[in-house]
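S.,

Sequence below, as promised.
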Amino acid sequence: MKFDELVIGLKIELIEYSETSGMPSNTFISQYEGSEGRNILSVATPIFEGRLYPIRIGAKLSVLFLYKDSLNKFTAKVIDRGNKHNISVLKLQPLSDIEKIQRRGFFRFDCMLPVNYRVIGYMKGGASEEYTKSITADLSGGGLCIKLKEGIEKESLIECQLFLNQDARIQFTGRVVRLTKYEGKKGDYTHEIGVLFEQIDTKDREKIISFIFEQQRKLIKKG
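The prediction came back faster than expected:
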């Protein structure tokens, strides 16, 4: 894939690296806003804790995105800041070509959304059950966390209906990769599971990433 194939509005993730250790330090949701010439790309300035996050000029970033069922990545350097169509942007200079990657971590957004789930089996087989209503603890393009009244074993396969809003229902199959029990906790939810998407339509994954991005945009408007 070439840089001139990137489409304005494409949802991306930016991974920032520490200036001292060179290790990943922060991950943000952003959006591609176009190019200036052959070697300068504009992306929306990310939002962190409700405010525009001023990534330093000179910072090295990894840029990740979905395109035609593939996960893609390139590295870039922040060379300037600016505004484009009333949007605060970072200007990036690519340091590598775009390459396909197999798996990646996604930015996790804390949110409580309605979700229905049912266990459809285990990695070695199992029985189905009726849907149970619950809520999410967080959401990303790679999976989600669900609050539970009782635990579900790791490696369980679950079928879920996630409701981003009244008109957007996402159907997917996930695998439980983490189970947490909150000792001594009172109330409806005493457990939490981390779920990775096993089967999800690419367009639905993009809807989730777009939803996270829009929620981040709303945070800055609220001040």
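The chain has one helix and 16 strands.

Coffee later?
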